[in-house]
Design a protein that fits this description.
One of its GO terms (molecular function) is metal ion binding. The chain has a six-stranded mixed sheet. It has a two-stranded antiparallel ribbon with strand order 6-7. By secondary structure, it is an alpha/beta fold. It is globular, with a radius of gyration of 20 Å. A hairpin with a 5-residue loop joins strand 6 and strand 7.
Length: about 230
Amino acid sequence: MSAGNFVDRLERLHPYLKRTRYKVFSIIDDLYTLDIQRVADVTRELKRRGMKIQATLDARATDVIRGEVCEALAPITNHMLIGAECGYDEGLKKIAKGCTTKVLERAAAMLQEVGLSHKCVCSFVIGFPFETREDCLRTIEFASKLLVKYNVRVYLQRYNTIPGSAIWEELAGKGLVSIGLFHEPTVDFPSHGVLENGARRSPRGRATWPGSWGCGVASPAPRGRE
């Protein structure tokens, strides 16, 4: 979809934002930042039409460090999520993340330069099957560095093996996991009964899905906002 057509849709929906709780668009596209020119064109077209919007979006560290992506995202970003996953290069390579800790840190620095770091969450996962206790601590240490030095926010999540993933298939081939693990409630899935669509009901009645769970860590308050 061209930048112009994308902004056309935002313009049609914009009057209805006042009916929502947060008055913010949610861009459901984990490749939104891949095309640098399109990102810049969208922001430029919004400005041309006099549209002031805020949006939540996903971004990749490898995209954030390219060209003028940060500058183009700054006017419209309310919240940004970057999947950092591991805090050490060997782990990033094993999960085929396609980046390094150097790239992640550079992305955090560039976001800080344009005033976006406090709106960015870097999501980390600890407990991959190949990890040792020391590996997990390395991830926590790196995540803490990004939080303190660059003022990003951090999510720390514990890994849960998901059926269909490459890691699941590897472990299943060794007889270490099976689909039967999801037949009964566990500490990871404290629910009762299985819904027809595969989701489970939590004690509060919410549908939950196999995946990672964790906690968010708030960043220090931006200067001038203490």
